[in-house]
Design goal:
Blueprint (H helix, E strand, L loop, with lengths): L12 H9 L8 H14 L4 H6 L1 H7 L5 H4 L4 H8 L8 H21 L2 H7 L6 E2 L13 H12 L7 H10 L3 E2 L6 H11 L1
Parallel strand pairs: 1-2
Helix pairs in contact: 2-7, 2-10, 7-8, 9-10
């Protein structure tokens, strides 16, 4: 078996671990789907490694990504988050996280789970791409634009098509490992189960 990775994983052990164990693996836990929605929103305008390095701090600051708790954050909690130097202290992103938790709960009420809603866009089966190089990967797709519009209509923010596409990649809705990466076939097998 080749140990070649997607080139974006670079040499950072944290990045490589994320690539090897998580990225592209189909996720169906609402809590994990919410976590990635928060992290992808926080990443906007920054590098993903910045967010990965702060992931544990985010987990602690946002009550383990418990969307029920986050939905009820008031001004004192938001102020505390804005003063927390361990996380990304962007007022718009923090406010969006609270708003998104509230929208997340509304979607769950309508669809039973957020998983049912979001995975419905891909007919509950991961899309399989066959990119030969990182240069071929799009930043967004027509489907990501469709999902983005629907999320916004439902009250979500910081969910532009690029963020949505990143969320789809991270949560395994789409397999964007390059074909020469050792994870490409592994993730493809996971998706087939």
């Amino acid at each position: 078996m080749s140990d070649k990775r997607c080139t974006w994983a670079g040499n950072d052990p944290l990045y490589q671990k994320y690539h090897d164990k998580e990225w592209g693996v189909p996720l169906h836990s609402d809590k994990k789907l919410f976590e990635f929605l928060v992290l992808e929103g926080m990443q906007a305008g920054l590098s993903w490694i910045t967010v990965l390095k702060k992931r544990e701090a985010f987990r602690k600051a946002f009550d383990g990504f418990d969307f029920n708790k986050v939905a009820n954050y008031g001004k004192p909690k938001i102020k505390a988050l804005l003063n927390n130097s361990d996380i990304i202290r962007n007022r718009l992103k923090i406010n969006a996280t609270v708003t998104n938790a509230q929208a997340f709960i509304r979607v769950r009420k309508e669809f039973g789970t957020f998983n049912n809603y979001i995975w419905g866009f891909v007919d509950h089966r991961p899309l399989q791409n066959s990119w030969k190089s990182l240069k071929q990967l799009p930043a967004k797709t027509e489907l990501a634009e469709t999902i983005s519009k629907d999320l916004k209509k439902r009250g979500f923010s910081f969910v532009g098509p690029t963020i949505v596409y990143s969320h789809m990649q991270a949560t395994g809705m789409i397999n964007d490992h390059t074909t020469d990466c050792f994870r490409y076939r592994e993730v493809k097998k996971l998706a087939a189960k």
